[in-house]
Amino acid sequence: MARFAIAWMSEMSITSHLDDLPSVSPLQAASRFDPYFDVYGLGLKQQADLESHTVTLIARSPASPPAQALAMNLGRFQPMSLEVRIIFTQIAPPDALNFLGQALNGSCRQAPEAIIRWAKNRSLLDAHERLTLGRTLCWTGDSMRRAEDSRSAMDRVDDGTPRIIADANASFEALWSLSSPVPRTAFSRVAPACQIPGVQEQALVQALSAEPNVIPLEAHQRFRRH
Question: Which of 65, 89, 162, 172 could crosslink 29 through cysteines, CB 3.0-4.6 Å?
C-alpha cells in the first residue's frame, strides 16, 4: 500500500496552483502534507535504521505550511522515535515557533534549540523549502526568498530513491553548516507539550481527525473519529 501511495505521488509530483484559485487557510495549507506523513508512517513499520527515522526540514519560518504540518504530525508517532533537524531563515513569529517547540519537546530526545538552526545569511534565501521524511519521500517547495503571499505555490514530491535522498541530505548538511544555533532565549516562552493553547490544540485535533494509518499516541485517541 505504501508503494502504491508513493507511485501515485510521483505521478503527481509537480503541481501548480493558479492565481485565480481560492486561497486556503494556514491549517488547510498544512493539512495537505498529511498524506505524506501517512505514507511515511507505513514505511517505518518495515524500516528500523536511523536514516529512515530521520526527518529534515528547510523552511522560511516556523509559520510555513511544512513547518506547521510537521508540528501537527509529530504527535502521531511514538515518542522519541524520530530524529528531527530543522533550518529556518526566520525564527518568527513567536507563536508558531512556540507551537513547534512544544511538539518537539514531546516527541524528540533533543531540546528545540539543538534541533533548529537559523540561516541568517540573506544569500541562503535562494534555497528552496524542503521536507525529507526518512528514505520515503522528499517534498520541495518554492524559494524561501519569496514572501508567503507572493509564492507560485509550485512544489514537487519525489519518492525516496537513493539519489533523491542523497541529494536532499547533501543540500541539508551544507545549509546546516552555514546556519547558526537559535538563541536559547527564543524558546523562553515554550511551554511543555501538554500546555498547547486552545487555538493551536484545535488545529492539532483537526489535523489528527482523518484517522491516519500511522503510529498513534494514546494521548490522541480521544480526539480521533471512529
Answer: 65
